[in-house]
Amino acid sequence: MSDVLTADAEADAQALQSPFLRALISLIRAQDRFGTWDKKDEGQLLAEYVIDKEKRKLIPIVGDPDPDQLSRLEWFYGAVGLQVESRTGVMASPIMQMSHEGFGRMVVTAGRLVVINKHLRDVHRFGFPSLAKLAAEGAKVVDDAVAWIEKHPDVAKA
Amino acid sequence: MSDVLTADAEADAQALQSPFLRALISLIRAQDRFGTWDKKDEGQLLAEYVIDKEKRKLIPIVGDPDPDQLSRLEWFYGAVGLQVESRTGVMASPIMQMSHEGFGRMVVTAGRLVVINKHLRDVHRFGFPSLAKLAAEGAKVVDDAVAWIEKHPDVAKA
């Protein structure tokens, strides 16, 4: 565990073992085609997802998201898709449409079912107070998506 | 009817009265905030959708779509959404994710239902041999979407 993350280090270390963060980490590692992040440990890989109170104060209220921020958002929902698939056996694909000003829409579909439908704004402020919170939020989104599939399995398999 | 369109002028004139092209025209007019296209008649407004054989031969096989081409694609599916809503009373919203190379995905959702799920490629070649074909293809896509809503009305209203 790197020292980039603090506060409740034990909770964070536990979060790193959660299925959602495992999926997120493997997805990020898979993007690293040139091994640029080989020397980063898992905490460092996810460090930019963590925006604590102090850090958040420094981010302007209004701002345009940069490509790294958009990637983090896409990876988050990509990991959601992976987790949904591993729990239900149904493939779930994210699709995002974003204005350059950082508002837009994220949809995750499974077959003919919309399992996540989220309107996004202030994407340049996307982040979580801690790794534990990131893991918890990811797990919650996955749970919601899985619940939709359980409710309409025929549509999810259509 | 302008002279930008030829071939079967009567079929084209009829097509301009179809519900799909009425929706498409009103959607394009609505984008024209500065009245730039005020003097264009309806045939001219849609002229760029028409790519006949001769015109198609001049388009390279591989190419990146320009913003006008992307707009035409978005208006096409926007008009589909309008028509779906007017026929079913359920709002349908398009969401598009496109690489700069012109492949990607277009999804139209109604409630929790995916009423259109289309993988796009060669967007720089998006067009139809005539206005009549444009109207026919639009109507077909609308029919497909409406059929999905009729099959799963509860999901479309969820």
TrEMBL record, chains A, B:
InterPro entries according to UniProt: NifX-assoc_nitrogen_fix (IPR004952)
Tree of life domain: Bacteria
Protein name per the record: NifX-associated nitrogen fixation protein
Protein source organism: Telmatospirillum siberiense
